[in-house]
Specification:
Helices cover 0% and strands 48% of the residues. It contains no helices and 31 strands. The strands form eight sheets. The chain has a five-stranded mixed sheet with strand order 5-6-7-8-12, with no helix packed on it. Strand 18 and strand 19 form a beta hairpin. The protein is globular and about 50 Å long. Its main location: nucleus. This is WD repeat-containing protein 75. It is found in: Nucleus, Nucleolus.
């Protein structure tokens, strides 16, 4: 008779570290990324995991530096909460209960005490309908806080975090979905919509894949399925808008990111090449090739000292601003194995 024992899971490990865009701390010393139900904090110098922020009860869907305190981060989750952490000490400071699964989170310095989240449209049961809302975070001493001050900003947005970006320190936001680009101005409380045809004459696919906003100029960069990048200007006057087109990628652009001063635009896709475009002189480009796997996300540190790229093989590459690889953080990957079953009479391979 075999005695039955209770199986207890002590630690959950091996989750993807490239599910969402990573975050680099203001001093470029730490890299934070969503990993399953947790947030992992890595040293950019040693590649060591120095903290693991635990508290969410479902998948973490976003990590964001708090604009007013460079030592704190917000995380959001499918568990319907936004959590505020002191990431250097690994301390959970606040839990804000939203009550709906959260797809992504954004913030800006000009919206103090407010975070913006993408969540399912409350009155629509279809899983493919999402809205962007402003959540006003209550200022109180309680560690667990119910949030009731929520206001809708945009309806029918993409659930993909790279499809929404804030421009000019939060004066406006850009949202791309399908063949539509929508730009919303907070002071005017007015949005402009721009549409593209599904295909153009040369057979290219115009569908939007990602968006980024220049930190100082009124310029919105959009990536597309056919590998093109469009730079939109004059969009605060719908009839006068213009765009210019950049093209190097042969397939969909998966991520775009401007550097903090706006001097360069970074792009990546399935080619495993980070492309650095000189803003205003886009014919001048730098390339970092052979990064090993498709680029899924790009992030830049607030001081501009480091870039990082997430890859489809669960790897994050940390890159110096001179476009030179500094270090690599590798998550677990699936490996091939063979199972050998031994019987009393013979050995049998499977």
């Amino acid at each position: 008779m075999v005695e039955q024992a209770e199986v207890r899971v002590v630690h959950q490990g091996g989750s993807k570290i490239t599910f969402r865009e990573p975050v680099i701390s203001s001093d470029s010393r730490f890299l934070l990324c969503a990993s399953g139900h947790n947030v992992k904090v890595f040293s950019t110098a040693t590649e060591e995991c120095v903290q693991e922020l635990r508290g969410h009860t479902d998948l973490v869907t976003g990590v964001l530096l708090r604009p007013s305190n460079h030592l704190q981060v917000y995380s959001c989750s499918a568990d319907g909460t936004v959590r505020l952490w002191d990431f250097t000490d690994g301390i959970l400071m606040k839990t804000y209960v939203i009550g709906y699964p959260i797809c992504s989170i954004y913030a800006s310095a000009s919206h103090d005490g407010v975070v913006f989240i993408v969540m399912p449209a409350q009155r629509d049961k279809r899983s493919d309908v999402f809205q962007l809302v402003a959540v006003h975070l209550p200022q109180c001493a309680d560690q667990l806080v119910e949030t009731t001050d929520v206001s809708a900003v945009l309806g029918d947005v993409s659930s993909n975090p790279v499809a929404v970006a804030f421009g000019r320190s939060g004066e406006y936001l850009a949202s791309a979905k399908g063949l539509q680009l929508e730009i919303y101005f907070f002071k005017k409380q007015k949005s402009y919509r721009f549409f593209l045809k599904e295909d153009h004459k040369n057979g290219g696919r115009n569908t939007f894949t990602c968006v980024a906003c220049h930190p100082k100029d009124d310029c919105v960069a959009t990536g597309h399925e056919d590998g093109k990048i469009r730079l939109w200007r004059n969009f605060n006057h719908k009839k006068e808008y213009t765009y210019s087109t950049l093209h190097w990628h042969h397939s969909a652009v998966s991520s775009l990111c401007f550097t903090p001063e706006g001097t360069n635009l970074l792009s990546g896709g399935v080619e495993s090449v980070l492309v650095q475009w000189r803003y205003g002189q886009e014919s001048q480009r730098d390339f970092l090739p052979r990064l090993g796997a498709a680029i899924t996300n790009i992030a830049v540190s607030p001081d501009g000292a480091l870039f990082c790229t997430s890859h489809s093989d669960n790897k994050i590459t940390i890159i110096q601003s001179c476009v030179k690889v500094s270090s690599i953080i590798q998550g677990l990957v699936k490996g091939k194995f063979r199972l050998y079953v031994s019987t009393a009479n013979s050995d049998h391979k499977q």
